[in-house]
Specification:
Elements: E1 6-10, H1 20-32, E2 37-42, H2 47-56, E3 64-67, E4 72-75, H3 82-88, H4 97-104, E5 122-125, H5 130-139, E6 146-151, E7 155-160, H6 165-176, E8 183-186, E9 201-204, H7 210-215, E10 222-223, H8 228-238
Parallel strand pairs: 1-2, 1-8, 2-3, 8-9, 9-10
Antiparallel strand pairs: 3-4, 5-7, 6-7
Length: 242
């Protein structure tokens, strides 16, 4: 790895996407630093959506993508995506996704559509009420070693404990041969939290949800006064990576 190369793992919606001018600035930055930055998109979107955004020109080409809240991984440079097999081997192939969906679904926590589900992700809408969340947890009380991610007061994702955005970043850093101190993460929602807890350098935009900013109290991630991609570029400049 060149001595000045670094890994950028960024969320998309609200972090890169959202402001056309900011998106254009980010594309210019990525083109200018091509060869120095290893770029990874770490998002709750599925891979079809990510590929479409790249094809449309809204996102620059990337080296990696971790999609579906850190439960899928793609080496975008490798048509065979061999790296994904190693990542997915971390989880029990018999993980009970359908059983979790059947138990968790309710009037206040209906299932998300097929595009929101995955082999290692069971995803639900949520009405935001504490009592319905308590009921959801009670119905899934038989689960052990699972991760529940509550996002934006609207979404619930259940994953194996071995997965999540933070785990995906750790895995990608190791695969790319980049120390976590040379890794930068950026995100704006609660499902980005574990990326900020692995020892990487962090960037938080001004539009970050209160649930994330509160959880990051005491964390040394850089809080930008700018929004979305403008904040990402501001943070990268502050880190000397602009």
């Amino acid at each position: 790895m060149p001595p000045n190369q670094f890994l950028l793992c960024t969320d998309l919606d609200g972090t890169v996407l959202g402001d056309p001018e900011g998106e254009a600035r980010f594309r210019e930055w990525a083109g200018r630093l091509r060869g120095r930055v290893i770029l990874a998109y770490v998002t709750g979107r599925n891979i079809g959506s990510v590929r479409a955004l790249i094809a449309e020109g809204r996102l620059p080409e990337a080296d990696f993508a971790s999609t579906d809240v850190g439960t899928s991984l793609f080496d975008l440079r490798d048509p065979q995506n061999r790296l994904a097999r190693h990542y997915l081997s971390l989880a029990d192939p018999q993980w009970p996704a359908q059983r979790i969906r059947d138990a968790g679904a309710g009037v206040s926590t209906p299932l998300q559509g097929p595009e929101g589900q995955g082999t290692f992700k069971a995803s639900f809408h949520w009405d935001g009420a504490d009592e319905s969340l308590m009921g959801f947890k009670a119905r899934l009380g038989w689960l052990f070693d699972q991760r529940l991610i509550v996002t934006a007061g609207q979404y619930l994702d259940v994953l194996p404990m071995c997965f999540g955005k933070g785990q995906a970043v750790r895995f990608l850093a190791a695969a790319a041969g980049v120390d976590l101190k040379r890794t930068v993460v950026a995100g704006d929602m609660e499902n980005d939290l574990d990326m900020f807890q692995i020892g990487a350098q962090g960037i938080v935009p001004a539009n970050a949800l209160p649930g994330l900013t509160k959880a990051l109290e005491g964390n040394d991630a850089y809080r930008s006064a700018a929004r979305e991609a403008h904040a990402l570029l501001d943070g990268l400049q502050r880190l000397g990576l602009g």
